[in-house]
C-alpha cells in the first residue's frame, strides 16, 4: 500500500481515551503539521482566496509541561501562544450533544471562524458564501487531523454535534473575537 492508502485505511474516529497526560510537543507537532507552513512554505490544506479563515485553539486539560489553558496556534510564529489560563474542557464537553467523555481527554482542538467577515469578503459570490467556505475549510483541516492521528497512533474524532449557544458561552473567554466554533476534535492516547 502507498503511504496515503495505508493512512486512509487506518483513519478512524476514537471516542474513548486514556486519561494519561500527553506531551505538549505532541500538540505542537499536530498543529504545525495540520495548519502550519510546510518545508516549502505551503500549507496542508487549501483556503478560498488563501484567507485561512479557520483558526485553531488548543484546550489543554492533562498535558505535560503546560498549564491547563486555551492556546492559540499562531501560524506566523508556528507555535502555541497562551490565551487564557484555566481548565475549559469540561465546559466544552457540556456543550456537546453526545460527548460527555470529552471532559477527561488530555486536550482538544477547537476550530473556529469569523463567518461574518468571510461573508463580507465573498459577498460578490452570493449570500453566506464565506460561511460555506469556512465549513469546507474546517473539513479539510479536520481530515488532516485524522490523518495525523492515523500516522502517529493518537486518537481523534470530529465532534460536530455541539449546542451553538452552549459552545459560544463555554468559549467566550478564549475564542477569537467574532468567531463561531465549527468543530471540536479531542486528542489523546487510544486504550490498548
Ligand atoms: C461532520 C461530522 C460530525 C460528527 N459529529 C460527531 C459528534 O457530534 N459526536 C460523535 O461522537 N461523533 C461525531 N462524528 C464522528 C462520526 O460518528 C464518525 O465519523 C462515524 O461514526 C464514522 O466512523 P469513522 O470516522 O471511524 O469512520 C462526526 C463526524 C462528522 C464527519
UniProtKB/TrEMBL annotation:
It holds the Pfam family Nitroreductase. CDD domains: McbC_SagB-like_oxidoreductase. Residues 9-188 form the Nitroreductase domain. Signal peptide: none annotated. It comes from the Bacteria. InterPro entries: Bacteriocin_Proc_Enz (IPR052544), Nitroreductase (IPR029479), Nitroreductase-like (IPR000415). This is SagB/ThcOx family dehydrogenase.
Amino acid at each position: 500500500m502507498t503511504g496515503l492508502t495505508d493512512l486512509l485505511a487506518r483513519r478512524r474516529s476514537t471516542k474513548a481515551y486514556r486519561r494519561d497526560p500527553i506531551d505538549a510537543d505532541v500538540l505542537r507537532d499536530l498543529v504545525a503539521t495540520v495548519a502550519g507552513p510546510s518545508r516549502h512554505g505551503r500549507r496542508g490544506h487549501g483556503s478560498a482566496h488563501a484567507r485561512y479563515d479557520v483558526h485553531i485553539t488548543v484546550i489543554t486539560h492533562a498535558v505535560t509541561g503546560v498549564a491547563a489553558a486555551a492556546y492559540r496556534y499562531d501560524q506566523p510564529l508556528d507555535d502555541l501562544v497562551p490565551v487564557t489560563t484555566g481548565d475549559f474542557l469540561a465546559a466544552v464537553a457540556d456543550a456537546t450533544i453526545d460527548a460527555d467523555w470529552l471532559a477527561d481527554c488530555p486536550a482538544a482542538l477547537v476550530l473556529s471562524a469569523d463567518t461574518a467577515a468571510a461573508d463580507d469578503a465573498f459577498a460578490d459570490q452570493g449570500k453566506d458564501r464565506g460561511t460555506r467556505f469556512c465549513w469546507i475549510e474546517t473539513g479539510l483541516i479536520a481530515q488532516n487531523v485524522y490523518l495525523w492521528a492515523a500516522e502517529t497512533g493518537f486518537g481523534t474524532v470530529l465532534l460536530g454535534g455541539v449546542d451553538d449557544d452552549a459552545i459560544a458561552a463555554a468559549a467566550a473567554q478564549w475564542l477569537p473575537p467574532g468567531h463561531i466554533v465549527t468543530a471540536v476534535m479531542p486528542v489523546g492516547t487510544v486504550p490498548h
